[in-house]
## 1
Amino acid sequence: MLERLPATAPLVDPFGRAITYIRVSVTDRCDFRCVYCMSEDMHFLPRRDLLTLEELDRLATAFVARGTRKIRITGGEPLVRRDIMRLFASLSRHLGSGALEELTVTTNASQLARYAGELAQCGVRRINVSLDTLDAAKFRAITRWGDLGKVLDGIEAAQNVGLAIKLNAVALKGVNDDEFPAMVRFAHGRGMDITFIEVMPLGDIDQARIEQYLPLSELQADLARYFTLDEIDYRTGGPARYMRVAETGGRVGFITPLTHNFCESCNRVRITCTGTLYMCLGQDDAADLRAPLRASEADDLLNAAIDRAIARKPKGHDFVIDRMTRRPAVARHMSVTGG
Ligand SMILES: C[S@@+](CC[C@H](N)C(=O)[O-])C[C@H]1O[C@@H](n2cnc3c(N)ncnc32)[C@H](O)[C@@H]1O
Ligand code: SF4
C-alpha cells in the first residue's frame, strides 16, 4: 500500500523525475485521417465514454495542485470537440493564479481560423501546428481528407492574433523528403520554428511502418547540404533538440524517439479523453482515473490513484521499426494518447 500523500504533494516518479507537464487528449476523433496516424476506417469511442469538459477540468486541476506547470490540449483533433473553448476558458484561471505557466494546444489547424482569437483570449501564447507538406495534392494524400488552404488560413489567423507557432512535420520517406529545405524556409520566413519528427510505431495503420520510416539523421544530412546548422542549447521542456539555421536565423528541432532515446528527462504524462492515464507514450501500462474521479466529489480517491500510477512510471520506451517487427510497439493509435 502506498503512503497517502497530501493533495498538494508534488509528483515525482521512481527515477526522481518531477512530473510537471500533462498532455490531455480531449477527443480521439479527427477531421483528418493522416496515413501514419490512423487507418482510413477508424472506430472511435462512443461519446458516452468520454469525460465531460467539467470532468476534464477537474482532472487537470488535480494535477495542477500537484505541481503541473504546463498543460497541452491535444487529441485526435482537439478543436473538433464540441464547446472545447469552454475548457480553455476554465483552465485559464490557473494561468491567472500563477499556478500554471503555460496552457497550449497541438492542432492540425483545420479549425484554427475560427478559434485563434478565443485561444489568445484564454491566455494561450504558443501553439503547435502539424503540417507535413506545402503541396496541396500531397497534403490531401497524407491527411486523406484535409484541405491545405484552410490550414494555411488558420496559421495566418493565429499569427494575426499574436500566437507564436511551432510547426511539427513527420518525416515520411518517399513522401515529403524532397521538401525539407522548402519547409524550413517557409517556417522561418514567417517567424515560426519547425520541428521534424520520426514516425513512431503506434497503432495499426494500413501500411507497413518501415515504408514510412526515415531516420532524422538522414534528414539532418539533407538540410546540411542547403544550410549551416549550428547546435544550440535551446529547450522547450519537450523532447526536441534544436539547431540554429545560420542563413535564416530560425530554429529547427529534431524529435528522434527511435534513433536517440529522450526518456531521461521525461517530465510528462498523458491523459486520454476517457480519463486513462498513460505514464509513457511508448508503453501499455495505464491507470484508470475516471472511476476514482466519478466515485467521489472529493479528490482523495483520485489523488491516491494518481500516486499509485506515478509510482509505476517506467524508465523509458523501447520503440523499434525494422523488417522483423511488423507489429506496432503499442496497439493504441497516437490519436488516442495524444501527440
Ligand atoms: C496525434 S496528433 C494530435 C493533434 C492534432 N490532431 C495534430 O495533428 O496536430 C499530434 C501529433 O502526433 C503526430 N503523430 C501522429 N501519429 C504519429 C506517429 N505514428 N509517429 C509520429 N508522430 C505521429 C502528428 O503528426 C501530430 O503532430
Ligand atoms: S495526426 Fe492529428 S490531424 Fe492527423 S489524423 Fe492524427 S489526430 Fe488527426
## 2
Amino acid sequence: MNREKIVIAGAGVAGVNAATKLVDEGYPGELITIIDMGKDPYHREYSEVMEGFLGAGGWSDGKLTYHTSIGGQLSKYCGEEKAMELFDQVIDNFKRFHPKPEEVQCSDPQAEPDFIKPYFGLRLFPVWHVGTDYLHEIGKNWYDFLESKDVNFIWENKVTDINFEENFISYTEINGNGDWTQKYDKLIFGVGKSGIDFGKKLAEQYELPTEPKAVQIGVRFEAPQEHFQKLIDISYDFKLYRKFDDKGVSLRSFCTNNNAAYVAAEHTYGDVSYNGHAKKDEAFRNNMTNFGILMEIKSIDKPFDWSREAVKKLQVDGVGTYFSPSQRVPSKTSEGDYVG
Ligand SMILES: Cc1cc2nc3c(=O)[nH]c(=O)nc-3n(C[C@H](O)[C@H](O)[C@H](O)COP(=O)(O)OP(=O)(O)OC[C@H]3O[C@@H](n4cnc5c(N)ncnc54)[C@H](O)[C@@H]3O)c2cc1C
C-alpha cells in the first residue's frame, strides 16, 4: 500500500472529488489532508458563496453539464473519452450523497426548435439538475462520508505559500492566531476562482508556462418565465449561442435558473459579480427566469487585467449596476441583498 502523504489545497468541487476518488480506491484517508480557507458544510453561511466545503460548487445552481465544450479545458489534457468518464464519476457522486437522488433531473434537448433557428443556435447535450437547495445537504452527507474515512480537514486556514522544491505547504489561520507548515509527498492544487490571485502568484514565482485565454464578460438577464417557457420545455438550462466570426466575438447564454430563480452577489478577488441560483422548493416559486449572457472576445492582450478593468468601469462603487422595468425592488436581489 502506498503510504505517501497527500495534501489538497482547496475543499472545492475538484478537491473533494479528488479525495473521494482516492478513498474509493482504497487510499487510507488518514494520509489525506484538505486545507480550505472556508468552513465545513455544517458551519458555512449562505453568504459564503465561494469558500468552504464544495467551494463555489457548494452554493452553485447544481447544474452539471455533460459535455466537454462547456466550461473548463479538461479534455485538452486528458482526451474526450477520459473527460466524459470523469464527468460521470462527478455526477455519480452528487447523486450518491443527494438526500433525494430520485429528484435529480436531466434535461436532454434533441433538436434545435424552428422558432429559435433564425436567431440563435441551441447547443444539444444533457444537463443534470441537482438543485441549489439540496447542495447544502449533499455537502453534509459528503463531508460525513470523508470524515468516516478519516480524511483530515483543516478549515478556516488560508494557504499562503507552496514550496514545490522542498514539498512544503504554508498556511495561516484566518483569525490570525497562527502560521503553519506541513510537508507533503503529493500535492493536489484546487483553489478555484477564489484562489486565482494566489495561483497567479505561484505561476509567476515558479515561471510556469501560461496560455492566452479569451475575455469572457457578461450580464445576467431576468424576465418572467412565461416568455421563455417554450424553450425551457425543450432545454431546462438552454444554451443559446451566436458567433460573429468577423469581429472575433461570440455570445452565449449560460446558467439558466427557472421557477424559483434568484441572483446572489459573489465576491472574488476583490470584485463583486452576480450569479444565478434556482431553488427546487415550491415555496420559493417566483415564476422568474434568469440567465447569464456571456460575451467571449478573442485576441485581447492580458485578458484577465482587461476584464477586471472593464468590470471596474461598469460597476458603481464596486457593486453591479442594475435595471428592472418593474419586477424587482430596485437594487435588491430576490433574497433581499443589495446588488447596486
Ligand atoms: C453562484 C455560482 C453558481 C454556479 N453554478 C454552477 C452550476 O450550476 N454548474 C456548474 O457546473 N458550475 C457552476 N458554477 C461554477 C462551479 O461552482 C465551479 O466551476 C467549481 O466550483 C470549481 O471547482 P474548484 O474545485 O475548481 O473550485 P472551487 O469550488 O471554487 O473551490 C476552491 C476552494 O478553494 C478554497 N481556497 C481558495 N484559495 C484558497 C487558499 N489560498 N487557501 C485555502 N483555500 C483556498 C476556497 O475556499 C474553495 O473552497 C457556479 C459558480 C458559482 C459561484
